[in-house]
Amino acid sequence: MRFSTSIWLVPFLLGTSPAALMAQEVPIGAPPAQMDDGEGEEIIVTGQAPRGSVIGNIEPEQTLSAADVRALGVTSISEMISELSPQTNGSPVILLNGKRISSFSEIQDIPSEAVARVEILPEQVALSYGYAPTQKVVNVVLRERFRAETAEARAGVTTQGRRENGQVEAGMLRIQGDNRFTLNLKYSRAAALLENERGILPTAPGRPFSLGGNVTAPILGDAVDPALSVLAGQSVTVASVPGSATSGAPSLNDFVAGANVTSVSDLTRYRSLSPETESFSANATLARALGGVTATLNGRLELSDNDSLQGLSAAELTLPGGSPFPPFADDTTLYRYLAQTGALEQQIRGTTGHVGLTLNGQLGRSWQWSFTGNGDLSITRTRTDRGVDSGAIQTAIDAGDASVNPYGSFAPDLIATRLTDQARAKSQAVQGDLLLNGTLFSLPAGDVTTSIQFGASANGFDSRSVRSGVESETSYSREIGSGQVSLDLPITSRSRDVLGAVGDISVNLNAAAQHYSDFGTLSTVGYGLRWEPVKAVQILASANQDRAAPTGAQITDPLIATPNVSVFDYATGQSVFVTQLSGGSAALRESVRDQFRLSARVKPFEKPNLTLTATYLNSRTTNPIASFPTPTPALEAAFPQRFLRDADGSLLQIDARPLNFLRSQREQLRWGFDLSIPIKSHIQKLLEAWRASGGKPEDRPPELQALFGNRPQRAQGQDGGDRPRGERATGQGGVRPSGPRGGGFGGGRGGGQGGGRISVSLYHTWHLTESISIAPGVPQLDLLNGDATGSAGGQPRHEIDARIGYTNNGIGARLGIDWESGTHVDGALGGASRLNFGSLATANLRLFANLGQMPMLVKDMPFLRGARMSIGIDNIFNQRREVTDATGVTPLRYQPGYLDPLGRTISISLRKLFSPNFAASNRSRS
After folding, report:
1. What is the pLDDT of residue 855?
2. Number of domains in the chain
3. Cα Rg of the chain, angstroms
4. pLDDT at 707
């Protein structure tokens, strides 16, 4: 992989000089990074919304404190969002401090220690920020002051061997109020994993290719040679080539032993289960408060390589009767692989650049405005080997060249021409939108608020491909203008005594339109209801209809043919290797989706922090756009032009480009709970015991001495009692946080000993309906009862996501369990057989130690301040889904190595947070 020239582009993409980067240092004497020794939670003055809260009155479904985030055992916001996937049920809208961001890359690399709290909110909140009400919202609130430099190294390997991977990462973060600077560099690499490294059993190809070769008549199924049939005592339609043929002309008798025996070769060492990958990325963000406007500029560059092996070149050679080597009287056909030329390769090279801009400001007291702009460039280059041009070999054989043995090795000049397909796809996009939020007028029950969004984008897609020597180009552009308006009207209010007996009720009305230069105008309309009968209960209902056009990539991606892709052919009940076509399709149409959603959130009490949620979803889509599914007989009947078979019915090629189905329906109920229980740390218990005994300095335990030195541990409030550190009086009847005072993850003052957490989350998804109508006149597919659109079977009726976490005294563990019920697929062998897909449960475990929170250890080894070690075990029990046919046999396509090549994986990481003030802090305490 070569990054030499591209790396020089990083400073230009980041848009700032090294001097400007260093200028973002917080003033000397500012606290070193990281967290308070308390929970990092804000103390809220009654009647005032927490800092960084979202717009509107919809309560979060769940709020995570800094200690809750630490209990997740994650190192960055990106990892945190991934760990919270059971709660968000997919990809959420991400906000920062209650405001929009240009893209997720703006905050993805921020260390988790910089997070003060996280709020998970229902889909309706997305409307207030100009998004569709189809995704949950995650609001990340950062600490007001934070600084750190980070370095991390990770290494992993599968327990079955091979597929080693590693990653190194370095970053810098400065936060001071609305001013922020981040810089992150990351390099990762993973080795290839071949089929023979997972014991994959060889699969017979659709045609009788093998390393030694098989001989047939020109028409498959006819006798190879009458004389050979006489010698063998049976009609011989195929014969494997004898091993002696590689060194000289074989006799007719030499073929008797291989009569009607098709040799099958093991090509598993020439095919990848997982490709070799390599990537480098640089990501920087600069945020500044400029008067009344907060401006954020983000730049990101990523380079990636992906290399895989696709088997061997296959040569189908005609051997004329009477030529020097074949002993047959008539013409025959030789099918053989050419190991001499090495494995076929597919190389994918990607370059991605991104620049984002965010502006946030106020218009008077009751209106806010926000602008986001993005520029993106993506270039993907694909090179696919199709094999060796056997034309020169065939010409020599036809000429009767006695030096060319069709069964042996070939001279280099005969195999010098390699057939290669190439494709290049380039996409460019510029986008900007303006959002206004504010109060229109007041009703007795409260203010009527609105959000108005205007946006525009220009997209360009260019692709070029060379396939089988034929060059084709596609150029496509799309301009989009959009607008959205959302209106929230309060109907009743407890606080204003407007029908307060029924609780708080508000309704939402929203509408949006997008004008596509190539698709016309598509609209979205919706409405919603929020009811809070009591403070602990919130019920939301919403309905919307939206129209969506296919993406430019789905239309214009270049045509790519990937050879030797393993699929299960339901029509024959066999596992076969086919050529798979991928790319864009210009025939795609818009889709129309109608959704109804009803959700409830209940918080019966605050301590322990328990949240119960449930969501019912009913979605119906007309003309849904989907990738081409598994080749079932029903699909082949609906789209016969997508399949290519030979005269014997063997599947040779599938056109897997995206398509429109007729309609689909999805109905599900998802419910679950989140529970967080604080527990006292060892340091807290020591501190309480020491105070109970009088709190004399000479009686201070060694661990407290190591942690605090000679400083007092608590400030005295005006009432003479202890006030938790990290708070100071406001003079307004309340307290507010004093901000970071060192310590936290990095040690320093307090070592982050604010206590631990036990956390549990459990979510169950019950799929009530999952159906697809493929095309007119084709029976509807019931994915819950015997039909499928993917190679993993139908839709599991039940899914469970569970997470259990524990952290205290610097030690933590996080266990994740995912379970899916079994499915089955009918229709194999013309409907006479069934494939059963068993249930699957996987468990992942992460153990971590925040070494900086262990005072005695840090005292003996100061370098460990800010250090963290983590061990991850994915798929602890090495589980794969079991797939069997009606006879109980596992088809070759569904061997465990195909379903999950990696299996159990172990990784270890070491992370260090550095701060230039650590040394000064230590000196001041010595």
Report:
1. 78
2. 1
3. 33
4. 64
Structure tokens at 97: 């401090």
Length of the chain: 926
How far is Cα 800 from Cα 784, in angstroms, rounded to an integer? Answer: 16
State in Å, rounded, how far the first CA of the chain is from the last one: 49
> CA 837 → CA 823, 888, 899, distances in Å?
5, 11, 11
Q: Tell me how crowded residue 349 is: count the other CB atoms within 10 A of its CB.
A: 17
Q: What angle do CA 391, 241, 330 make, to 5 degrees?
A: 65
Q: Which DSSP letter does residue 891 get? A: P
Chain mean position to CA 25:
34
Task: Round to whole Å and give the CA distance between 749 and 855.
Answer: 10
Q: In what order do the strands lie in the sheet with 93-96?
A: 62-65, 115-121, 137-142, 93-96
Amino acid at 297: L
Tokens 């046919």, residue located: 885
User: Cβ neighbours of residue 370 under 8 Å, at least 6 residues apart?
Assistant: 99, 100, 129, 358, 359, 360, 361, 434, 435, 437
* Cα 284 to Cα 172: distance, rounded to the nearest angstrom: 9
CA-to-CA distance for 703 and 317, rounded, in angstroms? Answer: 80
List of residues 6+ apart from 247 with CB closer than 8 A: 408
pLDDT value at residue 159: 93
Domain assignment of residue 122, yes or no: yes
Q: Which helix (H) or strand (E) holds 924?
A: helix 917-925
Q: What is the CATH number of the domain that holds 150?
A: 2.170.130
Strand partners, 451: 437, 486
In angstroms, the Cα distances linking 748 to 35, 399, 716, 898 are 10, 84, 21, 49
**Residue 238 near residue 262, CB atoms below 8 Å:** yes
* Residue 69 resides in a domain: yes
Residue that has been written with the tokens 């003030």 in this structure: 917
- The answer to whether residues 597 and 123 touch, using CB atoms and an 8 Å cutoff, is yes
3-state per-residue secondary structure call for 323-358: CCCCCCCCCEEEEEEEEEEEEEEEEEEEEEEEEEEE
Q: Is the peptide bond before 608 cis (omega within 30 degrees of 0)?
A: yes
pLDDT of residue 741: 37
The answer to whether residue 769 sits within a structural domain is no
User: Do the beta carbons of residue 725 and residue 37 sit within 8 Å?
Assistant: yes
Structure pTM?
A: 0.82
Predicted local confidence at residue 706, as pLDDT: 65
DSSP secondary structure string, 445-477? Answer: TEEEEEEEEEEEEEEEEEEEEEETTEEEEEEEE
Pairing of strands 574-582, 651-655: parallel
Could you give the CA distance from residue 217 to residue 219 in angstroms, rounded to a whole number?
5
CA distance 440 to 364: 13
Residue 129: phi and psi, rounded to 5, are: -115, 15
Q: Which residues are CB-contacts of 570 (< 8 A; sequence separation ≥ 6)?
A: 630, 631, 632, 633, 825, 827, 828, 829
Sequential DSSP letters for 83-114: HTHHHHTS--EEEETTB--S-GGGTTTSBGGG
In degrees rounded to 5, what are phi and psi of residue 476? -150, 140
Predicted local confidence at residue 482, as pLDDT:
96
Q: Within the chain, which residues score under 70 in pLDDT?
A: 1-48, 629-630, 706-754, 828-832, 915-926
**Would you say residue 533 lies in a domain?**
no
Full residue range of the structural domain in which residue 44 is found: 31-171+183-193
Q: What is the spatial distance between Cα 883 and Cα 899, in angstroms, rounded to a whole number?
A: 10
Q: Is there a contact between 346 and 384 (Cβ–Cβ < 8 Å)?
A: yes
Tell me the two tokens of residue 815: 């266990």
Q: 280 near 303, Cβ under 8 Å?
A: yes
Q: What is the DSSP letter of 875?
A: S
